[in-house]
UniProtKB/TrEMBL annotation:
<dbReference type="Pfam" id="PF10604">
    <property type="entry name" value="Polyketide_cyc2"/>
</dbReference>
<dbReference type="InterPro" id="IPR019587">
    <property type="entry name" value="Polyketide_cyclase/dehydratase"/>
</dbReference>
<protein>
    <submittedName>
        <fullName>Polyketide cyclase / dehydrase and lipid transport</fullName>
    </submittedName>
</protein>
<dbReference type="InterPro" id="IPR023393">
    <property type="entry name" value="START-like_dom_sf"/>
</dbReference>
Length: 309
């Protein structure tokens, strides 16, 4: 058995208390950390939690459960994977945040892991190093933007459809067929990974007739839920992730679409001009995202896709 340890550190323009608060809230991670696609809390108490994470590693989608213990007085979070993803035998680590000077802190991320072979150790080291650099780099970039120049938006809508829940999920899962079925999708390429999850590349047309190239990692969480995260975002968006929920109530089928997204003053100015406020940009982005989702949901009935595709 081989054990290795990696240490990554970075300085952040924010007080340690603020950074620690962010690291403690895993529901925010998918908005800021590039590798994180979706996080689900399984158990939660004051001093610890059990979470399920879906994230990219070496270009593929991986998932694992992690037990996290909080030590706020030390601004430290200790984590341990409870069911390590292969080829890991074990994976533990620590987030540690310390104040250095006024409004500057240092973030230290430590991983300790065991595997069977040197080849596996090299593979994990590459994945850990790549993701740690991305996470710390994005953390630094996020806190470099003044709070007044960053805006988060969330929109959601629910529509009733006449199709069954199975037909609705089949339509949403068969994204490679969307160009034939959805007018605002010009092209779609779907790459499925052996370990689960998929990468969806789309060419879409917005309400204003502009063309956008996007790429999203998608995960089918259950037979009623799909989550996705764009890794190439259109327009002024700096982050965008979404969810599809299909459910039945009183023998009626419903589809719910959720979008979480973020913009900055800088991206809004570059794309929409200096006269556009952050508030107006959030409103516009939310309307554009939801317009496409509503059109997609409405098409489920008109296409009439069946379970066999």
């Amino acid at each position: 058995m081989i054990q290795r340890e990696t240490i990554h550190e970075i300085r952040v323009n924010a007080r340690a208390e603020r950074v620690y608060k962010f690291l403690s809230d895993v529901t925010l991670w998918a908005d800021i950390f590039p590798p994180t696609i979706y996080v689900k809390k399984i158990e939660s108490s004051k001093n610890q939690e059990l979470i399920q994470i879906w994230a990219t590693a070496n270009g593929e989608v991986r998932t694992w459960q992690s037990r996290r213990s909080f030590e706020p007085e030390k601004r430290q979070i200790i984590f341990r994977q409870t069911h390590p993803a292969k080829p890991l035998i074990s994976m533990t680590g620590t987030w540690k945040v310390c104040d250095e000077e006024d409004n500057v802190s240092r973030v230290k991320l430590v991983h300790t892991y065991t595997v069977k072979t040197e080849e596996e150790a090299d593979y994990i080291e590459t994945a850990v190093d790549t993701n740690s650099r991305k996470e710390l780099g994005s953390l630094q970039a996020f806190f470099a933007v003044p709070e007044s120049e960053y805006a988060h938006g969330r929109v959601e809508d629910i529509l009733q459809i006449s199709s069954t829940a199975t037909e609705a999920m089949d339509f949403l899962k068969q994204a490679e067929k969307w160009p034939e079925r959805i007018s605002h999708v010009a092209n779609a390429t779907l790459t499925r990974f052996e370990a689960g999850g998929e990468l969806l590349r789309l060419t879409t047309k917005a309400k204003d007739k502009s063309i956008h190239e996007t790429a999203s990692y998608r995960v089918v969480i259950s037979d009623s839920m799909i989550v996705y995260k764009q890794v190439e975002t259109p327009g002024a968006l700096v982050s965008h992730r979404g969810e599809w929920h299909v459910f039945t109530e009183d023998e009626k089928t419903f589809v719910k679409s959720v979008h979480d997204f973020a913009l900055t003053r800088d991206t809004v100015t570059k794309v929409l001009g200096p006269s556009t406020s952050l508030e107006d940009a959030v409103d516009l982005a939310g309307k554009n995202l939801m317009h496409n989702s509503i059109q997609t949901i409405k098409l489920i009935d008109s296409i009439g896709v069946k379970a066999d595709g």
